[in-house]
Amino acid sequence: MFEALSDKLSGVFDRLRSRGALSELDVGEALREVRVALLDADVALPVVRDFIAKVRERALGTEVLGSVTPGQQVVKIVHDVLIDELGGEGAVPLNLAAVAPIPVLMVGLQGSGKTTTAGKIALRLKERARKRVLLASLDTQRPAAQLQLAQLGERAGVASLPIVAGQTPVQIAIRAMETGRREGYDLVILDTAGRLSIDQELMDEVKAIRAATSPAETLLVVDAMTGQDAVNTARAFHEAVGVTGIVMTRMDGDARGGAALSMRAVTGAPIKLIGLGEKLDALEEFHPERVAGRILGMGDIVGLVEKASETIDQDEAEKLAAKMARGKFDLEDLAAQLRQIGKMGSLSGILGMLPGVGKLKSQLDDAKLDPNMLKRQEAIISSMTPKERRVPDIIKASRKKRIAAGSGTSVQDVNRLLKQFDDMSAMMKRMNKLGQKGLMRHGLSALMPKGMSQASRPGGRPF
After folding, report:
1. Where do the domains of the chain lie, and which CATH numbers do they carry?
2. Rounded (to 5) percent helix, strand, coil in the chain
3. Predicted model pTM
4. What is the pLDDT of residues 86-130, one digit of tens each?
């Protein structure tokens, strides 16, 4: 997400920081490069003009040009303007302050991921807000659309409105609301039909459903991969029915991110949620300040911590920490760690949330970071006997061949995993031996393997 834009902006700001004092000419040149980067990222032209004008006005002030670190000041201004363009500080939650059952209307074009998003929102509200949710498909245009939503509801453990043939979308919506009131549901998610393109028939249908149900939320679902088309879709729906929030799907596949930067300015409606994959739980709140940080290579540590707290089993983590503190660590524990990391998503996604990793992207690409590495390592450990996992020292040549064959990997892969495990075990033993006081006295160099603690300093003194 935003990789291309982030790479270009990082280059611009690195050059600014390296210059020391800045002139108006330097700032103007940098802003021209920022303008090109935003246009290449498919940000709408009016939005780019407004963005550059806001940054220029703030950046040419005496507090920047006369600053000790003017380059850093310009970066801060761009960061602040980015946050404003994306919607301001903090995520905007779904509006649940209405009389139950709360109607939530899903609108958008066909193929935008609207039906899947309805299922994701239902699961999110059920698990995080403890709400009773009823799913209702109003799509009488697409074959099996109603059945698809019913299947998604089943996967999410959420009820769906029974299908009655021959009813119009408005009749289905009214029946859904009546069912919601009668059976005590907190929310009713109304999934409308989409079209391949915007037409008057689609808008009239959505307007009629909206008039019949008075939704607390009208959520527009747009595919981030469609770039400017997504922006045009948002403008048309907002003008016709009044969108209260936007859900952007396939954000994990959009390296440019221009549509997200344009949405708030074009519609005035906030991006409330983003889809980051096909799984039903792959839906996150949209935090403008965190996204701005990621675009500028500052990472998203808060998001990473939240993701970890949501996916990591706390009891298992505490048991593992206790074993590590005692210097006890075996391959069963490593497998548990790999599973916990795997729950957090792809390695590239996790790395993208770390500050400064954007600058290492070329090195990571050259290293050909394998997205399936964790699964392969887990498969290797699963192919070992319980004794081998507890006592890895017994794994010699013949056992390595058997483990490699059983896991569908090579002996080299098995050797790499065992070397990684040995390095981790050695570090934990050193930590246990040093204790907290020893670690504070000797520093991180005490944890490094022998031969690596001598830094390339005059006299070979350790760091």
Report:
1. 3-86 (1.20.120.140), 102-302 (3.40.50.300), 305-447 (1.10.260.30)
2. 60, 10, 30
3. 0.65
4. 887 778 888 888 888 999 999 988 888 889 999 999 999 999 889
